[in-house]
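Thread amino acids onto this structure.
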C-alpha cells in the first residue's frame, strides 16, 4: 500500500493529511502555523516535525513509508535562500521519503480544481493567484506582500475601512454606516482615537488590520463607500485572473474554472457578484467554481498525483464524501 502526505501551512494553522492509494483518509492533524516569517526558521522545523510525526502515528505508519509528500508553504519561492533552507529542513524530517515544497496557493489550486486546468484565487490576509493550463504550464500573479501589494486582501480591505472612516470623520466623505460602526465596535470616544487604537492596541499587526474588513462588510449594506471598496477588490482579483490568462495558453474551446479560497470571498453579494461580471467581460470562457476539496486534502491528492499521474473520478468522489463526513477544514 502506498501512502501520501499533504500539508497546508496557513498563516493561522498548519493542517496535515495522509491518504492511501485508494483515496482513503487515514490520518488528519492540525497544529499551529509553521509560517517561518511569523514564527522563525528554527521553529519551522520543530513545528513541522511534531505535526508529521503526529499524523503518521494517527495513520499507523512510519515516515519512511510515505511514498510522496507535498508541502504547501506560505511565502515559499519568494526567496531562493529561504526556499533552500525550508527544503533542507523538510529533508531533515522526511528523508529518505521524496517530497516537494510549493507555495500554499498551488495547494489551493490543486484542491479547488482536483488537479485540473484552471485559475485559483486566494483572498485571505494577503492575495495571490495561481493557474495551470491544459498543457501543464503554470503561472502565479500577486502575492507581493502587504507593503508592495496584496490588493483585494483582507488587510487591504481593512486599510480601506480605516481610510473610509477617517474621511467620513473629517467630512471628506459624507458620513455613512461605517463611521457609526467603527465608533461603536471599537469603542472610540473621539474620532482621533482610531490612531492610538491601530498603532497601540493593534500594534499595526497585519492580521489585526485585516480583521477590520469584517466591519467593512458589516457597513456595506448601507454605506456606498464600503460597497465601492468591495467592488474595487473585485477589480483587483479580475486583474490577477487577467495576468494569469496572459501568461498561459488555455484551449480556446474549453471553459476555464476560476476557483477561490479565503475569508474575503465570504462577501458574496458585494464581492462575488461584481467579480463574476468582470470575469465574463474579460473572457467568456471564465466561470466561477466552488472548491472541490479543502486545501490539505488537495495537498495529499497532489502528492498521489505526482506518483500516479492521474486522478480516478470514482475515487475522487469517494475522497470528497470522506472529507465531508470528517468535517475537514
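Threaded sequence (329 positions):
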Amino acid at each position: 500500500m502506498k501512502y501520501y502526505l499533504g500539508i497546508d501551512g496557513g498563516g493561522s494553522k498548519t493542517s496535515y493529511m495522509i491518504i492511501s492509494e485508494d483515496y482513503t483518509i487515514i490520518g488528519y492533524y492540525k497544529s499551529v502555523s509553521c509560517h517561518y516569517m511569523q514564527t522563525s526558521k528554527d521553529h519551522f522545523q520543530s513545528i513541522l516535525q511534531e505535526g508529521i510525526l503526529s499524523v503518521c502515528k494517527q495513520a499507523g505508519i512510519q515516515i519512511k513509508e510515505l511514498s510522496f509528500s507535498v508541502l504547501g508553504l506560505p511565502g515559499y519561492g519568494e526567496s531562493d535562500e529561504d526556499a533552500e533552507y525550508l527544503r533542507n529542513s523538510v529533508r531533515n524530517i522526511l528523508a529518505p521519503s521524496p517530497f516537494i515544497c510549493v507555495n500554499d496557493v498551488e495547494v489551493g489550486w490543486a484542491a479547488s480544481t482536483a488537479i485540473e486546468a484552471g485559475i485559483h484565487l486566494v483572498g485571505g490576509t494577503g492575495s495571490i493567484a495561481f493557474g495551470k493550463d491544459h498543457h501543464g504550464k503554470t503561472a502565479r500573479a500577486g502575492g507581493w506582500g502587504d507593503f508592495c501589494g496584496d490588493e483585494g486582501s483582507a488587510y487591504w480591505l481593512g486599510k480601506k475601512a480605516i481610510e473610509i472612516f477617517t474621511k467620513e470623520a473629517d467630512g471628506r466623505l459624507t458620513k455613512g454606516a461605517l463611521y457609526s460602526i467603527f465608533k461603536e465596535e471599537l469603542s472610540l470616544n473621539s474620532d482621533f482615537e482610531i490612531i492610538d487604537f491601530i498603532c497601540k492596541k493593534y500594534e499595526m499587526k497585519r492580521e489585526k488590520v485585516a480583521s477590520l474588513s469584517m466591519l467593512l462588510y458589516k457597513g456595506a449594506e448601507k454605506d456606498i463607500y464600503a460597497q465601492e471598496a468591495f467592488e474595487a477588490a473585485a477589480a483587483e482579483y479580475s486583474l490577477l485572473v487577467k495576468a494569469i490568462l496572459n501568461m498561459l495558453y488555455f484551449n480556446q474551446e474549453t471553459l476555464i474554472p476560476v476557483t477561490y479560497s479565503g475569508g474575503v470571498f465570504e462577501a458574496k453579494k458585494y464581492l462575488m457578484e461584481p467579480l463574476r461580471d468582470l470575469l465574463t467581460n474579460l473572457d467568456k470562457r471564465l466561470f466561477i467554481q466552488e472548491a472541490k476539496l479543502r486545501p490539505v486534502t488537495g495537498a495529499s491528492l497532489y502528492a498521489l498525483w505526482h506518483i500516479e499521474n492521474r486522478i480516478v473520478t470514482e475515487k475522487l468522489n469517494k475522497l470528497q464524501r470522506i472529507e465531508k463526513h470528517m468535517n475537514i477544514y
